[in-house]
Specification:
Layout: E1 5-12, E2 18-21, H1 31-43, E3 51-59, E4 62-69, H2 70-74, E5 89-99, E6 105-112, E7 123-125, E8 128-130, E9 140-142, H3 143-157, E10 169-175, E11 180-188, H4 193-199, H5 203-206, E12 210-217, H6 221-227, H7 232-242
Parallel strand pairs: 2-4, 5-11
Antiparallel strand pairs: 1-10, 2-9, 3-4, 5-6, 5-8, 6-7, 6-12, 10-11
């Protein structure tokens, strides 16, 4: 797998990050894209087309993005169909932490379902998901919009009962293999890990994105990552997790 590029940001407040969205709608799909998409949908009926934001660049707290489509994103896999311009989905990854009753900080990981677009069966820090484009009349987002998207992903993918406060943005991961650029936001849950586990629905019964979830002590995360099959962005984020 291709290593992920990691842009460490320290701890940036959500209000200090802006996403500027270039004008215009997504490019029209070519006949080759349409043909490949239909073949993919026959193999995986869960696939559906939807608007996405494509990451164009980052500088001094400003992310530049443009509007594109999940269809064009998905057909890029394995370079099956040439897509111009290429799509690098702008997403958010949660670094969800909580302490146990003895005060040891843990981080949440999930093993991806084999029904996901890429990296089926591998472990990841999460939840994660694409950042939904706003209405066409809206040309920017901020870190609080990103936080709200992450809360949606938590509720949809993990079954964890939580109403968290926004946390700092720690990094951007750029994964060329998954064609995804993720803002990494830390969310610290107030309830003890033991209580969260007791009141959470299992990942398998709650949603389809994860086969299972686990809480790993941050200080042991390097050993977990070395012994487990993890996605490249999670590997890249290991030093950040161990410093928590």
């Amino acid at each position: 797998m291709t290593p992920t590029r990691l842009i460490e940001l320290g701890e940036i407040a959500p209000t200090s990050i802006r996403v500027i969205i270039e004008s215009g709608g997504p490019p029209e799909p070519t006949p080759a894209i349409e043909q490949r998409w239909e073949a993919m949908r026959k193999q995986n009926p869960r696939l559906f087309n939807a608007p996405v934001l494509s990451f164009e660049g980052f500088n001094a707290g400003v992310i530049v993005a443009r509007r594109d489509s999940y269809q064009r994103l998905a057909v890029q896999a394995g370079a099956r169909v040439p897509v111009e311009p290429a799509v690098m989905q702008l997403s958010v990854t949660g670094l969800i932490t909580a302490r146990d009753t003895e005060g040891t900080r843990h981080v949440l990981v999930g093993r991806r379902s084999h029904a996901t677009r890429i990296y089926g069966g591998l472990w990841e820090l999460g939840p994660s998901g694409g950042i939904d484009p706003p209405p066409l009349s809206q040309t920017s987002l901020d870190g609080l919009d990103v936080f709200r998207q992450l809360v949606v992903e938590m509720r949809e993918e993990t079954g964890i009962p939580a109403d968290p406060d926004p946390g700092p943005i720690l990094a951007i991961t750029v994964d060329d293999e998954a064609t995804s650029a993720d803002l990494v936001m830390r969310i610290d849950l107030a309830r003890p890990v033991e209580e969260i586990i007791a009141h959470s629905e299992s990942a398998r019964s709650f949603g389809w994105e994860y086969e299972t979830t686990r809480w790993i002590p941050c200080r042991d995360f390097g050993r977990f990552e070395a012994a487990s099959a993890c996605i490249p962005p999670t590997t890249a984020l290991t030093p950040i997790v161990e410093r928590l």
